[in-house]
C-alpha cells in the first residue's frame, strides 16, 4: 500500500511539475513575441522587457484576457534629454480580436492603462548644465511611512531636492536647492523646474550661498524640458521623483491601444 501511495504521489508530482513547466514555457514564449512586436511597432532598436503576470498563464490565454501586462524600455534615445526610459502597465487586456501571441499590428482594448516616462538625474543634469546633479524626493516624503507617494512610488512634485554644482552661476561648490516640478504645454508634456530656495542642514549639501550669488544659483536650477510624451499618448496625472529619477505618470481606464503608440517621440 505504501509503495502504491508513494508511486501515486510521484506520478502526481511529475504531472504537476510538467504542467507548471509547460505553462511557464508558454508564458516565456508569449512574452518574447510581445517584446518583438513592441520593438517592431514602436521602432525600438532593441527588445523591451515584457512580462505577462499572474498564474496560470494558459488559463488566461484560453479566456482571451491577460490580467496584467508590463512593458519597459530603458535607455531609449530622445532628442531633448538624450535618454529616457518608458514603462506601461496594462490591466485587463482583451485578446478577443487578437491572439495570445500579440502581434505588432494588434488592437488591444485595455481595462486600465498606466504609462510612465522616466528621466534619471544624470540626463536632467545634462539639460540643466549641472553635470553632478542628484535628484531626491522631498525630505518629508522620503522619511515618512505615510507619505504622499502614488501607488507607483512616485513622490509629489513640490519641494524636490536638487543637489549639484551650479557652475553657470560662477559657484564651484555643491549646493542643495528646493525645486517644484510642474507640467505645462500641449497635453502637459513640458516639465517645468522652478527652484524656490537654497537648502541647508541634514540630508542636503549643507552649503550656504552668499546673498549676492543666490539669484544666479537658483537660476542655474531653473529649466524647462519639453516633448516628454507618455507611452500611448496618455495625459499625465502625476509627476515627481522615485529614487533618483524624475517620473511622469498617466493613468486612464477603458481605452483601446496599438503597440506603435508605446514610443511617442
From TrEMBL:
InterPro entries named in the record: DUF2993
Disordered: annotated segments: 133-159
Pfam entry (one): LmeA
Chain intervals with Polar residues compositional bias: 145-155
Protein name (database record): DUF2993 domain-containing protein
Species name: Mycolicibacterium fluoranthenivorans
